[in-house]
Amino acid sequence: MIMTVIRRILSFFNLSVDEKEIYRNEINLENTRRTLYLSLIAIPVSLIHIVLFGLKFNLASGIEKEWVVAIILSHMVIFFTTTICSILIYFFSYRTRKNNIISKVCTTAVLFLLLFMGAILASFDQYITSAITPYLNTTIIVGLIFLIRPLYSTIYYLTTYLIFYFALAQTQLNQEILISNQVNGLSITAIGLCLSYILWRSNLTRIKQSKQILLQNKALYDSNAEKDKFFSIIAHDLKSPFNSIIGFSNLLVEQVKNKEYEGIEKYAVIVQQSSHRAMDLLMNLMEWSQSQTGRMEFNPE
Length: 301
Description:
This protein is an all-alpha fold and about 300 residues long. Helices cover about 85% and strands about 0% of the residues.
């Protein structure tokens, strides 16, 4: 029983050969595209935070000023990192010759940066508030946007939670609030993981079904093309004996009308032979049809 559960867990984290191919060829490309779009959103959002908190810099004092400086520096890191990654992705995925390694590195950098900065920003917020909204936002956003393998997703989220757990202890001095936020952070991490698992599996299943449908459509197209070719050959092969039958039967009719009986037997033999050839061809066609529909009886002796 225990071994069965362990095998199922391992199979959930491992990928089959087909799934690895889908991950390399399709999911990585989709993650790269989503990273570019997300970076283009994160750049102006971070810039707005830098400007707004920069305006508060001279008005703040004491612990609030430290909080403002921390927020500005954090968003500067997000701004410059996402800007560099979006430029690299754009040039190495869309403009010049593709470089999958650079695209993967940039995607991973942006993904982990969001989780990491969510934990750091939440810890900085403890200077003036007990909210952990940045950690909640980044955890949910990453789970909803990126298609992450369950093994990698588990590593990313647990690592981020450890960072969140220890960083929070450095800024939140109230032990009751600290414990509450750490427990809430664990719940948020679990929710993000579940979202990541669900979206990964649903998208992987959808891609596999789409590939299966494409393969079935191709097989159906090939089958129809083969049948069209076969019937064209059959029609061509039937044309010759039926031409003979029609031609010599017309001669027989004319000779009988004119009471010229010389050569009738010869023409009748030709008609008979052509009819047999046409019948043999039709029987072969019937047998082929039975074999294609699975109705042919197989009696080995």
